[in-house]
Design brief:
The protein has 259 residues and is α/β, with parallel strands linked by helices. 45% of the residues lie in helices and 15% in strands. The protein contains eight helices and seven strands. It has helices at 16-27, 39-51, 69-80, 103-131, 153-173, 192-204, 210-218, 231-238, and strands spanning 7-11, 31-36, 55-60, 85-88, 135-140, 178-185, 249-252. A seven-stranded parallel sheet has the order 3-2-1-4-5-6-7, sandwiched between helices. Helix 4 packs parallel to helix 5 (153-173). The chain starts with 6 loop residues before the first strand and ends in a 7-residue tail after the last strand. The model has no long low-confidence stretch (mean pLDDT 98). The structure holds nicotinamide-adenine-dinucleotide. Nicotinamide-adenine-dinucleotide binds next to helix 1, helix 4 and helix 6.
Length: 259
């Protein structure tokens, strides 16, 4: 077990990529704080983990509300004694053409994906510095953060910001033994894809499901990603195996963005 004795916070852990990573971290011996907006969703995910023999508990936190961040950290410390790992994953998708984009669209995505992630990272890092024994922070970006794409003006810019923040945070936190890295998923089959498929389909005049079906055929690896495809990199970046690695964002995308 690669994470025995560690305490991990997984934001957006109630479903999708976050839930898969939360389950895998627990299998690797970590105690997992499952974080999402609704307490019932957090509790359901934590119950799934504990019924499989893992250690987990749920704590509700809307990451776009910065006033909730310290309370989250304090609650995890109270329940589990410390914070060793942050899987900084909570996020939403929204596709807009630049010419139609409003401030409301921008704030919806950036408040969660960028501001929320930035200050979660800061609060977790402050706690890790206080503890004095290092830590691991993994920011979840996207292939959309690697290059511009139609409809991805605000979402893609936000994910690119995360790649940048990962580098700067890593340089500033290395002296504290805190490794900051990231993962840039490609196309992963989660609930998020209902909206991605609909919005891209509307833009291209395609039937529901068509965008997703077509993409499935053009992933170089040969298939759409599944949430379990993310867990190996997530464990690697949280474990001692990545000790000499900081400031990197790994493309875990079936080859969609060659590195
Ligand atoms: N699915 C993909 O193809 C894909 C590709 C690239 C990047 N990503 C990124 O991966 C991450 C996870 O996405 P997913 O596909 O698992 O999505 P998902 O919709 O299945 O899960 C998102 C999770 O984030 C939580 N969340 C959303 N807003 C929140 C908030 N304000 N506060 C707290 N929690 C909040 C949701 O409750 C949920 O648990 C996101 O950051 C997303 O941008 C996904």
């Amino acid at each position: 077990m690669k994470l025995a004795g560690k305490v991990a916070i997984v934001t957006g852990g109630s479903k999708g990529i976050g839930l898969a990573v939360a389950k895998r971290y627990a299998e690797e011996g970590a105690t997992v704080a499952v974080v999402s907006r609704k307490q019932t969703d957090c509790d359901a995910a934590a119950a799934e983990i504990t019924s499989a023999g893992g250690k987990a508990f749920g704590i509700a936190c809307d990451v776009s509300d910065l006033s909730q961040h310290q309370a989250l950290i304090d609650a995890v410390v109270e329940k589990a004694g410390k914070v060793d790992i942050l899987f900084n994953n909570a996020g939403v998708f929204d596709a807009r053409l630049l010419l139609d984009l409003t401030e409301e669209h921008w704030d919806y995505v950036w408040d969660i994906n960028v501001k929320g992630a930035a200050f979660m990272l800061q609060k977790a890092a402050q706690q890790m510095v206080k503890q004095g024994h290092g830590g691991r922070i993994i920011n979840v970006s996207s292939e959309a953060g690697r290059r511009g794409a139609r409809l991805c003006f605000h979402y893609g810019a936000g994910k690119a910001a995360l790649i940048h923040m990962t580098q700067t945070a890593a340089f500033e936190l290395a002296e504290h033994g805190i490794n900051v890295n990231g993962i840039a998923p490609g196309v992963i089959d989660t609930d998020m894809w209902v909206k991605v498929d609909r919005q891209f389909g509307e833009d291209a005049g395609k039937e529901p499901g068509q965008v997703k079906a077509e993409l499935d055929k053009i992933v170089p690896y040969g298939r759409f990603g599944v949430v379990e495809d993310m867990t190996g990199a997530a464990v690697f970046l949280a474990s001692e195996d990545s000790e000499y690695m900081i400031a990197q964002t790994l493309n875990v995308d079936g080859g969609r963005v060659p590195g």
